[in-house]
Amino acid sequence: MKQNFYIIAVLITLFIILGCQTGSNSFPSSIYIPSSSVNITGQITDNTGTPISGVKIVIIPSAKTVYSDILGKYSIPVSIDSQKITFLKKDYLSEESLFSQGITVYNKILIKGASSFTGTLYEKDTTIPITSANIEISSKTNSLNVYTTTSDINGLFVFNSIPSEEYNIKISCDNFSILTEDLTSTQINSGSHTFYLSPSSVNEYTVTGNIMQSGTNNPVSGATVELYTLNDLLFQNQKKLTDSSGKYLFQNIPTGFFKLIISKNNFTTYQKIISVDENEIVEDINISITTGSTPSGTGTKEIVFVIKDADTGLNIPGVIIEFKDSHFNSITNNNGSSTFIVPIAQYNIDFVKDGYKTQSRTMNMADVIVNPVNIIMVYDLVNNLGNIKGEVTRSDTLPFVGEVAVKATLHTLDEIGQNISIITVADQITGKYIFRNLQILYNPDGKEYKYILEAGYDFNGSGTIDTEEISYQIVDLEAGKTSIADIMLIAP
Q: Is the pLDDT of residue 111 over 70?
């Protein structure tokens, strides 16, 4: 019986092969075998059939991106593991399609927004309207659909001709706390809504200024102005675009130090440290047009950079990436990454951040590039200072569950009237820690004082670190170098 089955299978296979070779109508002349990638094409129109240019087409999960041309047409290579394709255009409802095997043409009709959203602002627990508040709504599904307005003398505000989708609303005003809420699609175009703002319980101020073109009196409109903390995290998603007069405005900013970063295509990226302790008017910031242009080349290529710290291996946000002799530049996000889509050409690329040595790369986009491209940046040690880094481990090799504190202390026995004590926290997963730019001190006889490291962990869960839960290490610090000090905590 088995022998007959094998004979039948062989005969069927021979018929298929012969049919393919002779072009017989009984069998297909070719068999579709998906390659590692396919080219997806299509056209995007509105509901009247008019082509829509500038539509952002994004492949998920690769984030590969192209834009539709003046005829609404696009073409994009897609790997076979891609799952979805999304279509985004400001003022239009976003659209999304799941990939189907064998289909390489995706035409889309985008619907322009025709809804409105109305609201009124009052002081909390009163009927006193709030005037000149800033209201921003941002779509949860289409990052391009962000709209801003201000409240009038009656506290009223209106958004017209917006797509009916889910939004996040953010309301800010001097002397009031910021209000953020989620809006459902059913709330859009469903009558007027009332919002109440609470008086601010902390000192909050405005930060405003103008961006101008260097060497001229011309304002720079459409520049992105971002407000970062000094540890390079974007503060409360504070990101603004300059208006036609080059002006930007941040509201409800607490007292402290912040970093302003200004960027725009064709201009060099600029950053400035500011101190906020009252309403801050930043002096005019002048940015220069880059001397470069868009390189000529056939096709484009996507490249994703991830910037890492050489000592800790952690990703670095706030790194300025500049393609020299071209207008491409960007800043790494809070995850330390930045994505570019550039013409295929050779580039000289600089990676710049305060406190780190500038890294430079020459890259030819015609070469095979495996994303992401990791760039390692080395902290720029001051010659008369030193680093200490290491790893804290447990003697029982179990993982840490809570915080691991590491303290570096330099005792001078009051011989020179100066002591140093600094505390940091080791990474809970890797146990790694680092102290940067520690000062080196010498006694009156010229002998270097040593640093004493102590690492502690609350093994018994008492809420405090007991003496028996601490381990020590003595470290010699060398100027301009990094000393290694691994510490093992003895588990009870």
A: yes
